Amino acid sequence: MTTLLGEVGKKLMDRWATLVVLPGLLFVASAVVGFRLGHAEALDVQALATWVGVRLAVTGAPETGGVLLAVVASSLAASGAGLCAAALGRVTAYLWTLSGERAPLRWLVRRRQARWRRANERVAEAIGAAVDAAVGAAGDRAVGAAGDRAVGAAGDRAGKGDRAGGGAGRGAAADAIGGAGADGVRAAMAARERVGIVEPSHPTWIGDRLTAPAVRVNARYGLDLDSAWPRLWLIVPDAVRAELTSANDAFMAAARLVGWMVLYAALGLVWWPSAAIAVVLAAAAWMQARAAVATLADLTEATVDLYGADLAEHLGIANQGRLDRDTGFAVTAALRKDDVPAPRPPSLAELRRK
């Protein structure tokens, strides 16, 4: 047990040093340089070297106590800066995932929804143009029937909103057309996905991308991901948990970069090179956050696809070895424990009879 606790403590110290102390020391050094040089001598290395030489000459050979005090003071300052950046990162992650229920965020959501719907209409137009081209080139009833089926399948997704389809239908729609105009369809769907993989409900792309798995899983399987996810987490293999944790850590690291960006931007008020550093950090944080969020969302959806049936089996719900709408609804009903159960979604057979 002592050995285990020692290893855990060592890992925690390594993580603390990597995420907090080392970046904090870099910021403290930048702050010392910035306050000494200011805007006028911002890049004057000679002036900095002269100042350091004068300080060393004045203080002389430092005593052990003085060195220890300087190390402790630097470590405390670095830790304080690191904790401040981490706190700002938490705030950033919260702001990135805010819902758009209230003004002025609601106005941003409406603007993004309008962009998404315009892109969605272009998807429908691209599908229609591709089908027309395929029918005209082949001039045969069989191709025409295939085109009609493509319009029926893809048009329902694109023309009616496709809140849950998003990028998942990109390859299927193009393949149904038989290759004619597939590039145009894929380009239109990619443009729509750049706005949002589902119809926006958040003021930011990051917020929508993180909630997209819940929307798509509910539409495809009738499964409430909010109630199912904690149970899924308990039954998936350690390797899956590790991948999900790694993606989430990458997202939080991007949020911390925003925290450091804020600190360097504040330092830029007295030393302009720090403002340039802040711009670089902002760009890096945004790119890393988008990549990490996309990975985390894809992994979340993949976890449901691969282990949703296992969750149903653990709950004693019969299934065919894969997750479908009936199974997903049964899992949702078992997990949510609502006083008033939600209505059961109609099956495909029932929809066809109507």
TrEMBL record:
<keyword id="KW-1133">Transmembrane helix</keyword>
<keyword id="KW-0812">Transmembrane</keyword>
<keyword id="KW-0472">Membrane</keyword>
<feature type="transmembrane region" description="Helical">
    <location>
        <begin position="16"/>
        <end position="35"/>
    </location>
</feature>
<feature type="transmembrane region" description="Helical">
    <location>
        <begin position="67"/>
        <end position="88"/>
    </location>
</feature>
<feature type="transmembrane region" description="Helical">
    <location>
        <begin position="262"/>
        <end position="287"/>
    </location>
</feature>
<protein>
    <recommendedName>
        <fullName>Vegetative cell wall protein gp1</fullName>
    </recommendedName>
</protein>
